[in-house]
Every structure is written in C-alpha cells, then in structure tokens.
C-alpha cells in the first residue's frame, strides 16, 4: 500500500488543501543593491507595480523602487513566511515592525484585520541579494476569524533542526517550523505559534517541515493520524523516489497521512522538500483577495470595515517601509517590546 494519492506539477503558487489556503514560493536572484535597497539594474521592460515575470531571474512584484509587497490588508487567516535566504522588512498597522530572514519565520495572525507591508531590501551593494521564501496562508476557523491581530518571530537560531544519518552515513536534515516530529526515539517540539492559530491545538496536527536529503540518502517520513491533509513539495534537486515512484523536481505529492512514505534521493544533487500537514477545518470558505471568511456577507463586511477604519490606519512614512541598509534582524512588537535573535 502506498501513501501517495497523486503528484502535481508546481507553478509559482503551489496547490494546497484545507486548512492551508495558499503557498507561494519566491526564488529571486536579485542583483547587487543600489544603495537605496533597490536593485542596481534597469527596471525597463518590467510592468512596475505588477511585476511577476521573473525577467533576469527576479521580480519587483508590487514594489516600484524596492521589490516586495507594499501595505495591503488581511482578515480571517494567518500568514506564515519562512525565509531561507535574504531578508524581509515588515511593518504593520498595529505599530509592529521587523527585519527577518536567513532562516527566520514570521507567523502573523491577521484575525479581525491588519495592514502590513513585506518588502525585500537589497542590503548588499557589492554582491547579489538572493531571496528564497515560502509564504503559507493558514486558515482560521470561524471562532477565531475576528481575534486580535498578532505576530510572532521564530528566529532561525531557536528553530529546531534534526540531523540524521541513514545506514550508508548519508545525511538528512529536518527543520521543524511547526508540528512535533518523532524520530529516532526522540520527540522534537517546535517553537510556540500564535495562541489563536489552528496550529496551537495539538489535535489539529499542523506541521511545517523543511527536509534536506543528501544525494543517495534514504529516509522514511513517519505516519501521522488518519484524515489529515498532507502534501510534500519537492522544490530543489533533480528527483526523488517516493514509495518506488520517481518524482521530478518541482512536484507536489499529495499523501495519505496515516501511511509512512519511503524517500530516496535518487537524483544527482541534494534534494529539498517542504511538508505541509494539518487537520482540515471543514468549514465553508468565502475568499476574495486578501480576505478569507465563511460567508459572502462576512466578506462584504470585511471590505466595509476596511474602508471605514483601514484596520487601524497606516502609521509609517511610506507604504513600502524599510528599515535601513544594515543587515540586522530585529522585531519591534506593538506593545513596544524589542527583540533580536
């Protein structure tokens, strides 16, 4: 019996299943910076303000001078932004701000409504500014859609990483962003997620793991409980063999959650994979752009509320707020607390 339900090719926006709403993979080979946190390169030939074309291997997205996503609202779900390379500058309508990256994760509960910006500052002027990140949208159940907004930083230095060797001394590494991992007789616990998250309840079995396997390595993804959404995304390498099925790079593997999966890196270089897992919320989803509610009426109310209140307004100098030209990571919380890794 195989754990595999089906495989799917990956585009920029990856296929997801309840409780996940969306997963975007940004992989941009930005050039050296121009001293103002933008690219030291011509922007001609790009649709500035709506640049997703990956011209020359990178995009400006909604940014006009600095790549990224200037101020925009959310309600009714959470964003989990895992930055493997590069930096993200955060600012929001709660008064919180931060610069994170190089392995950090930001977990933001939008709840009843927040505006935030996510800019990609090109801090290095003498070398390239590679950026690689996942942004994952995790839904909230109806009971939590109108909770107070909240954001947490899961710093790279504190995020658990499990290092294993197979029978041939080939190396496997699992970064545990969310969800308990049991392997080699150990129980690896993640850092705490926000208190109102669907992931905060143990019985929902939410897991976000990044799995690296050396060429030629074997590892078995352990089974969990029955009835979860479970998807493995193969995003780097050449290919992997999953339950004796060859799966090429840039593939998603939808899995049965209660059956273990045998993995073998049959390619010619290290393979990297992202696992998303969780108990489905099982409620109606009404989504339009940045708002995710349960009914059309709630969606309309979200638009009305944003027009009236702007979810607290924007208190920063610019909609594409950044935090200086020094590659220093920090978090400033709405209550005035400051934190550094």
Précis, in short:
InterPro entries: Pirin, Pirin_C_dom, Pirin_N_dom, RmlC-like_jellyroll, RmlC_Cupin_sf. The protein is mainly beta and 341 residues long.
Shape: globular
Helix/strand structural class: mainly beta
CATH class of the largest domain: Mainly Beta
Q: At the fourth CATH level, what is the homologous superfamily of the largest domain? A: Jelly Rolls
CATH fold-level name of the largest domain: Jelly Rolls
Mean pLDDT: 97
| Uncertain ranges | none
Q: For the largest sheet, list the strands in their spatial order.
A: 1-21-18-23-16-13-12
Supply the number of helical segments.
Answer: 1
Protein name: Pirin
Pfam family, one: Pirin_C
Family: Belongs to the pirin family.
What does this entry look like structurally?
It comes from Marinomonas balearica. Residues 211-312 form the Pirin C-terminal domain. This protein is mostly beta strands. Strand 24 (286-288) and strand 25 form a beta hairpin. It has a seven-stranded antiparallel beta sheet with strand order 1-21-18-23-16-13-12, with no helix packed on it. The chain contains one helix and 27 strands. It has two domains: 20-42 and 55-157, Jelly Rolls, CATH 2.60.120; 160-278, Sandwich (Jelly Rolls).
